[in-house]
Amino acid sequence: MPLPNSDQLAAELCRIAHAAGDVIMAIYQDEITIRTKADASPATDADEAAERLIIEALEIMAPEIPIVAEERAAAGQTPDIGDGPFWLVDPLDGTKEFISRNGDFTVNIALIRGGVPVEGVVHAPAVPVTYFTKAGATHIIEDGGAARPITVRSPDADGMVAVVSRSHYSTETADFLADFTVKAERAAGSSLKFGLVASGAADLYPRLGRTMEWDTAAGHAVVLAAGGSVRTLDGKPLRYGKPGFENPHFVVRGVD
């Protein structure tokens, strides 16, 4: 079964992400049950319920495309992705932000082809804001309004705005940013940081800590389609389908 065309695919991915967001918000507004995974990271009923919904929807839409999803992977269930396209799913990126109830958590769904994220949606249901790719461009939906296109920006002459992790800021990050003229830092959680660069609200996002491919793929797709880049510290494009699905350190930029 072929995938829908770009416009239809974008609409369907947004629909799936919004449905997963509704499931997450129902739990967010109630009691949150927390468990600890083998890697010591937290998970909740919302992670698991949202992932089930997303997987079921993707399997109906494209049963031939394998799905690599965070909670399945944590349980040791990762499919053979081969050389073809595959999905990367983080049903609740920013679980720590979800638990602390600060709103900075997202639903991430991305399609990977040839190691590159070619389509993606990042939905933050508590904000609410949705970033998504369509026909090679990036769009945003804010507060339930109409979708509009967004692009990265060139930094202002007086310096860059850097976006940093709300939960994972480090001395390594501070040292990295010291090499740039940074006029302001903005803290955010989850893949919202990619959205801030894609929309021109920030110019630079360094991530000098551990991430997995499902954490970054949807945001990466959004940044690429908006005209930005995601590169490793040696300047190479960040790729997907790596053994173990673990990322090296990377830097997100609007305009290089």
Arithmetic mean of pLDDT: 95
- What structural class should be given to the helix and strand makeup? alpha+beta
Number of helices, where a helix is a run of at least 4 consecutive DSSP H or I residues: 7
Strand order of the largest sheet: 3-4-5-6-7-8-9
Radius of gyration: 17 Å
How many separate domains?
2
What does this structure look like?
With 256 residues, the protein is α+β, with helices and mostly antiparallel strands. It folds into 2 domains: 6-150, 2-Layer Sandwich (Fructose-1,6-Bisphosphatase, Chain A, domain 1); 160-253, D-Maltodextrin-Binding Protein, domain 2 (3-Layer(aba) Sandwich). Helix content is 30%, strand content 30%. It has helices at 6-28, 45-61, 70-74, 95-100, 171-177, 192-198, 213-225; strands spanning 34-36, 42-44, 67-69, 86-93, 106-113, 116-124, 129-134, 137-142, 148-150, 160-165, 182-188, 204-207, 211-212, 229-232, 246-247, 250-253. The protein has a 7-stranded mixed sheet with strand order 3-4-5-6-7-8-9, with helices on both faces. A 3-stranded antiparallel sheet has the order 12-16-14, with helices on both faces. A two-stranded antiparallel sheet has the order 1-2. A hairpin with a 2-residue loop joins strand 7 (129-134) and strand 8. Helix 1 (6-28) runs antiparallel to helix 2 (45-61) and helix 6 (192-198) runs parallel beside helix 7 (213-225). 43% of the residues are buried.
